[in-house]
């Protein structure tokens, strides 16, 4: 059993998927540096950076496996839409006890790319909620906290000037690509 960080965990602001966070991941790390061991700080940084230094931390390895499988499913779903060779039920979910396929299918079909991303991020959030059960003051709780901060920080950046501008450019490109595919008869829901 690892260290417990009762005071630090209890002082963290509550996170809600639909609300901007009160702190950024960087502010969280700065505050954590005053409370956590150097080894645990390293694990938090590895979680934020998706670092290969994840070895030895079971939770981070499980998170990385989930992320990889989710991304694989997104790629498979996008290829299936493009090639029209989708066979429902032919692929099996690899993440034991957590099905990603319905959320990925819903996200891929969504006309608004931002809303599609929110569907995927809600799935990530649900996965993290499931994994943190029983962890209230330990490193796993803090890792989940920073991963959720990272998710929320993306939306905070999109809402700001430059981030919003880049997102809108990307969104327009995707919409144009979808419209082009529809006109060419290559798009299907």
Structure description:
With 189 residues, this protein is mainly α. The chain has one domain (6-183). It is built from eight helices and no strands. Helix 2 (25-33) runs antiparallel to helix 3 (38-49). It is globular, with a radius of gyration of 19 Å. Mean pLDDT is 82; it is low at 85-90.
Quick structural overview:
The protein is an all-alpha fold and 189 residues long. The protein has helices at residues 6-11, 25-33, 38-49, 58-83, 101-109, 113-132, 139-159, 161-183. It has one domain.
The main sheet comes to:
none
| Total beta-strand segments | 0
Terminal CA distance reads 48 Å
> What's the alpha carbon Rg, rounded to whole Å?
19 Å
By DSSP (H or I, 4+ residues per run), the number of helices equals 8
Relative strand content: under 5%
Structurally, the number of domains stands at 1
Helix content: 55-70%
**Structural classification:** mainly alpha
Shape: globular
Spans of at least 5 consecutive residues whose pLDDT stays below 50 are 85-90
Mean pLDDT across every amino acid position: 82
* Secondary-structure element pattern, one letter each: HHHHHHHH
List keywords for this structure.
8 helices; mainly alpha; 189 residues
Q: What is the secondary structure topology, with strand pairs?
A:
Blueprint: H1 6-11, H2 25-33, H3 38-49, H4 58-83, H5 101-109, H6 113-132, H7 139-159, H8 161-183
Helix pairs in contact: 2-3, 3-7, 4-5, 4-6, 5-6, 6-7
